[in-house]
Structure formats: structure tokens, C-alpha cells
């Protein structure tokens, strides 16, 4: 396989502080990327009333002050994409670690033109206990057996064949389909919507073998903000039932128009 040029990679990490453990996960992820993919760019975009992540190890950091009662991941990912200058754009959940060889394979698929959107894992995700965080910070190596002697599948209501966690994009293709749909707030349904939208608009989607790892953390919102679940699902279903022609009009016009306030 063609060697991936990691200088052409930007890691986009959206962040909202809701616990000390979540901030520690951000530190683990940024340290992991700095040591395993030092040629690449890491961009953190944080929202909330205060800046907590400004001391992490990254190339670019931006804080957007707001008083939202939810994490607006789709909005934050798009703000990073707005100014991205690399050919490969990797949208990373702050709690997810992907083995470096899988990220390299996914990047190579994008740069070779073989794919427009790549999941750098086969859909399986394993939960890491809190004890893994300090070990990974000191030595970011997912092959280290001491990080987790007792791996367990990470489910939490997710489908077995995960389509979230981390997505490797051609930036050009990501922009061509309208980027993330900012109608989606908090969590739920946005991963499936953007995959469905990408397929309907003709993108080539691929997967790389191997698992990813999720760093455990408390969930102050009791597993999610249920008040947004209904509108998220409605938006998902609306997009999925559109014709390709109607979807193109939606993407080019109204999809994110009301969410470009910052």
C-alpha cells in the first residue's frame, strides 16, 4: 500500500468540558497523536463558558464561548473544517483512540483516491478503564498489555457495527456533501445521517480492519440529553428519505444556514 503522507492530515477534535475525566481523555488523545503522528496537525475546538483545554498538546486551539446546555459536536467539527488546509480531515471523538497503523491505512486510502470517507476500524470498539489513562499518557502505545487486562465491548446503546467514533475524510469530499449537519445537537443519529448522506451523494466509503478503544468517563447527562433525541431522529429520517436531487439542494442551501452564527 502507498505510504501515507501524514503532513496532509488534520485531526479535528471537538471538546466540551463536563468532567475531569473528559479533560484527561483529551490530554491522552492529543499526547497520543503528538507522539504517534507528529507530522500531522491536531486542531482542538472547545466550546463552553470557560476554556479548559487550552494547555493540551496540539497544533491549533480555539475556544468558542457559549452557554449551551449540550455539546454541539457537529458545529465544532465544522468550525475546524472551515480553516483546514490539509487534504485529509479526521473527525475524532475525544474519548476514542485508534491504532496508528489503522490511521495510516485509512489516510493512504484517501490520498490514493481509493476512498472519500474511511472508518479506520471494523466497527468493533472496546472500553478502556480509567487506569489506562495515566499509562497511555506516559507511553501512548495501544499495544501495551498493561493498559487494560480486562477489555470489554463498548456498547452503551450503540449498534454493533459502529459508524461513529472516528472518521477519516477527504476534505474536498467532506465539504462537497455539506460537512456535518449542525441540526444535530448533543449525541445521537448524526453519525448515521452523514454516512447515509455521503452514500446517497456518491462518495466511496471504506473500512480498515481492527478495533478502536474508548476511554471510559462519567456521563453527567445520564447517557445523553434526551430532549434533543426526537429532533435528531427527525432530521436523520428527513435526510434519509430525500431523493438525491432534493438532498443536493438541501445541502447547498438550507441544511446549515441557521447554524452559522459563530
Question: What does the model show?
Answer:
This protein is globular. The chain has 262 residues and is α/β, with parallel strands linked by helices. Helix 1 links the parallel strand 1 (9-16) and strand 2 (41-47). The longest helix is centred in the first third of the chain and has 17 residues, at 20-36. The protein has a seven-stranded mixed beta sheet, with helices on both faces. Helix 1 runs parallel beside helix 4 and helix 6 packs parallel to helix 7 (229-240). The N and C termini lie far apart (41 Å). It is 32% helix and 18% strand.
Q: TL;DR of this structure?
A:
The chain is of the alpha/beta class and 262 residues long.
Largest sheet: 7 strands, mixed
The whole-number mean of residue pLDDT values reads: 87
Quote the beta fraction. 15-25%
- What helical percentage do the residues reach? 25-40%
Low-confidence stretches: none
Shape: globular
N-C termini distance: 41 Å
Q: What is the N-to-C succession of helices and strands?
A: EHEEHEEHEEHEEHHEEHH
Number of helices: 8
**Broad structural category:** alpha/beta
Radius of gyration: 17 Å
Give the strand tally.
11
Sheet with the most strands: spatial strand order:
3-2-1-4-9-6-10
Which descriptors apply to this entry?
262 residues, alpha/beta, seven-stranded mixed sheet, four-stranded mixed sheet, 8 helices
